[in-house]
Write a structure and sequence with these properties.
By secondary structure, the protein is mainly alpha-helical. The protein starts with 5 loop residues before the first helix and ends with a helix. The protein has two domains: 1-46, Arc Repressor Mutant, subunit A, CATH 1.10.10; 57-191, Tetracycline Repressor, domain 2 (Orthogonal Bundle). Helix content is 75%, strand content 0%. α4 (49-72) runs parallel beside α7 (117-144), α7 (117-144) crosses α8 (153-174) and α8 (153-174) packs antiparallel against α9.
């Protein structure tokens, strides 16, 4: 079996390091050391830290899509239950790490949106894709009669994702799942009816 390339090691370990330390807090040296590769290997594979950031965002976004596919597109469950399970799994995942780390997309939004136009634009596209995915699930709920016929699915979907990201950030600060639990409860009780 072939050994993983230095590029793959840098991406795998770099994503972990950036998730732990933040994009600005993780130096190229930190990333190379974690991947156990020479510092020059990073610059051989990535023309800039920004280019590296785009690649790890894509990897993380692929994970999000898999998570969403597994839970939100499980048509064997009602839409409200899918969102409850979604929130519960987010809470459980973050609780395992004492609310550290959070969501890499939200972390990047807080850290780099004002620093890198390229990363900001990619983050905007990721937000739109997730919002649209939520909206399609909400539309299923409207079509089935589970959710109100006058629900503005796109706006509510954007609000849910924004509220979730904010709750994750505050949960990190407080080292408590309470903000996430409150967000889940408010979404289920007041929006998805």
């Amino acid at each position: 079996m072939p050994r993983p390339s230095n590029r793959e090691k840098i991406l795998d370990e770099g994503l972990r390091v950036v998730h732990e330390k933040g994009f600005m807090g993780a130096s190229v040296r930190d990333i190379a050391q974690a991947a156990n590769v020479p510092l020059g290997s990073f610059t051989n594979h990535f023309p800039s830290k920004e280019a590296f950031g785009l690649e790890i965002l894509e990897r993380y976004f692929a994970r999000i899509r898999g998570f969403n596919e597994e839970i939100l597109h499980d048509s064997s469950r009602p839409v409200r239950e899918r969102f409850k399970v979604y929130f519960d799994k987010e809470i459980a995942g973050l609780s395992c790490n004492e609310m550290r780390g959070g969501c890499l997309v939200g972390n990047f939004c807080a850290e780099v949106a004002d620093q890198s136009e390229v990363l900001r634009q990619r983050l905007a596209k990721i937000f739109e894709a997730i919002r649209d995915e939520y909206a399609s699930v909400l539309q299923e709920g409207v079509a089935s009669g589970e959710l109100s016929a006058d629900l503005d699915c796109r706006r509510v979907a954007g609000f849910i994702y924004s509220a979730l990201q904010g709750a994750i950030l505050i949960s990190k600060v407080l080292r408590s799942s309470s903000p996430l639990e409150n967000c889940r409860d408010q979404v289920l009780r007041n929006l998805l009816k």
